[in-house]
Amino acid sequence: PALLEPLFPPQPGASPGFAERVRQHKVRLEWVRAEPAGLRGAVRVLNLAYEKVVSVRYSLDGWASCAEAPAAYQPPAPPDGITDRFAFLLPLGDAAAAAETALEFAVRYRVAGAEYWDNNEGKNYRLRGRPRIPQDPDSSAWIHFI
Fold first, then answer.
1. What are the backbone dihedrals phi and psi of residue 14, each rounded to the nearest 5 degrees, phi first?
2. Quick check: 32 and 55 in contact, CB under 8 A?
3. pTM for this predicted structure
4. Are the beta carbons of 54 and 105 closer than 8 angstroms?
5. What InterPro entries does UniProt report for this protein, alphabetically (predicted)?
6. What secondary structure letter does DSSP report for 21?
7. What pLDDT is stored for residue 33 in this prediction?
8. Phi, psi (rounded to 5 degrees) for 78
9. Of 130, 66, 56, which is closest to residue 87 (Cα–Cα)?
10. Scanning 19, 46, 51, 80, which has the fewest C-beta atoms within 10 Å of its C-beta?
């Protein structure tokens, strides 16, 4: 099976100024991780109202078609007191196993009659499939000489 490789830093939330970017843009991707079940990640949003909807719109075919996955609120709230965290899983199924996979996504935040997007400064978040290199089961074995 292939491995999805982010073409952006996979931990934007760890970069300097992240909290300020959330305040300014209202929504920002915090991190992503490729897993056998799909792409898992977290989003940070500015807490503008109690009711909010966060989702991830994604495509595997250059936006000829797309799907949207909901993100779920993750308690407890971050300690900054002004943001909330939402988690998502993009279920990619067999598509994630193909080495030629190219995944693009953007995050949507709807709150108080407004809609905010994080699309990686207009470039979308992109990941590409990369073939896994099969490992020799003996490659990590130690050789002991007596």
1. -90, -5
2. no
3. 0.84
4. no
5. CBM21_dom (IPR005036), CBM21_dom_sf (IPR038175), PP1_regulatory_subunit_3 (IPR050782)
6. H
7. 94
8. -55, 150
9. 56
10. 51
The structure tokens listed for 127 are: 């990941």
pLDDT single digits (tens) 27-40: 999 999 998 888 99
Contact at 8 Å (CB) between 19 and 83?
A: yes
Collect the ranges in the chain with pLDDT lower than 70. Answer: 1-2, 94-100, 131-146
- Give the phi and the psi of residue 13 in degrees, each rounded to 5: -70, -15
Domain ranges of the chain: 4-129
Q: What are phi and psi of 24, to 5 degrees?
A: -75, -45
- Compute φ and ψ for 138, nearest 5 degrees: -90, 0
Q: Helix, strand or coil for residue 27?
A: strand
Q: Amino acid identity of 122?
A: G
Tokens (6 digits) for 66: 């797309």
Do 45 and 84 contact (CB within 8 A), yes or no?
yes
